[in-house]
Design brief:
Number of helices: 7
Number of strands: 0
Number of domains: 1
Shape: globular
Radius of gyration: 14 Å
Oligomer: single chain
Helix content: 55-70%
Structural class: mainly alpha
Distance between the termini: 31 Å
Amino acid sequence: MDSYNPLNPINPDDWLDLSEDERLALVREYHDCEGIELPNPEMHAIMHVIVENQIALESELPAKSTLNRLMKEGLDRHDAVHAIACVLSEDMFEMMQGRVAQFDQQAYIDSLNKLTARKWLERA
């Protein structure tokens, strides 16, 4: 895999064959080439990689089905990745602030299941 474009589906095997550093570099390169100004490019890339990892792994987390549902509701793939990352970052923030002792996977799953394109667009 020599490039990343969040508007296009990734090949899970190719994505997972990359190291985390390679994945981060591809995400950063995409945003740099597109001239997308970000307040914290490194954190932005990390969130993209986490969501893409969840999609590629097709684990018990509903990231892939949430992505597909959000796209059916009208978001492009990049915005759908951002919407999922937004939910994840809120849960991580709660943990970093000490409001929860550890990451609550079930709460994250519940939040993803409740996420809609309309709700995300209203907040964005």
